[in-house]
Amino acid sequence: MGVWCGSFRSPMIMTGPTTHRKTPSQEGLPLEHVAGDRYIHEDLLGLTFQISPHAFFQVNSPAAEVLYTVIQDWAQLDSESAVLDVCCGTGTIGLALAQKVKRVVGIELCQEAVEDARVNAHNNELSNVEFHCGRAEDLVPALVSKLASQQLIAILDPPRAGLHSKVILAIRRAENLRRLLYVSCNPRAAMGNFVDLCRAPSNRVKGTPFRPVKAVAVDLFPQTPHCEMLILFERVEHPNDTETLQPQDPPAQHSPGPPGDTQQEAGLSPPS
Fold it and tell me: Which residues form the active site (predicted)?
């Protein structure tokens, strides 16, 4: 089966199996380059991006520019900021922010997308960025520890199901991370992540909770019921920064059982 994957300035013909799949662009789907360029190139916010066949890239560039501009505005970045870009794809968000910050660290599961992101950083002459390939739940805990001395802001742009709870736990423990922007194409599926960011500390959830500050929907998919939701979370602040929330057990539940019954502590939402 032949698939036309480019524009007039960047034609590409790839062949793949004829088996029908729900998500035909998953990494690992065998493809053969037949003719034309091996990559698509797209301009976004004054930057040029190389895009491989398996790499994620927003399909609506003008609307993506609107989304990334709002992220830049809400993040309140300065020259001392460090950005942790989780599920960074080809590096679009991190690279769009790189000129305003001290450092950008991106994490992405797709190896092709990581290679694209590194090429994109080089082609756009941005040297304060680095990209790591792997699962977010495996990489984020170590990276937030490595960035513990930085003025850290996180950008989370996960797949529809949201992030593994290990990622949220690591972010909660990183007290130097005061502001977080979550991009979700399915807020209902990511609700467990939102709850875990904001729940009170417990023996299992360490760190000061976040609170949602504001949200906006950006219509990247006109004439469909889908959109991207951007939510800004900030750490709960305390007067003079002298108070800290103490771990709390869930409130006692009264039940008709015998007095000797005990209550189990509520755990985290299951991983998405």
Answer: 185
For the annotated catalytic residues, the residue numbers are 185
Task: Point out the annotated binding site for S-adenosyl-L-methionine.
Answer: 58, 108, 157
Residues 116, 49: contact at Cβ < 8 Å? yes
Q: Where are the domains of the chain?
A: 1-19+30-44, 56-239
Give the pTM. 0.78
| Alpha-carbon span 33 to 21, nearest angstrom | 20
Condensed to tens digits (0 to 9), the pLDDT of residues 102-114 reads: 999 999 999 999 9
Rounded distance between C-alpha atoms, residue 6 and residue 253, angstroms: 60
Give the distance, in angstroms, between the CA of residue 185 and the centroid of all CA atoms in the same chain: 11
At 46 the three-state DSSP class reads: coil
Q: How far is CA 133 from CA 13, 101, 115, 139, 170, in A?
A: 27, 22, 9, 9, 18
Q: Is 209 left (phi over 0), alpha (psi -120 to 50) or beta?
A: beta
- Which residues, in sequence order, are bridge partners of residue 129? 104
Instruction: Please tell me the predicted confidence (pLDDT) of residue 240.
Output: 54
Give the Cα separation of 109 and 90 in Å (integer).
11
Instruction: Classify residue 36 as left (phi > 0), alpha (psi -120 to 50) or beta.
Output: left
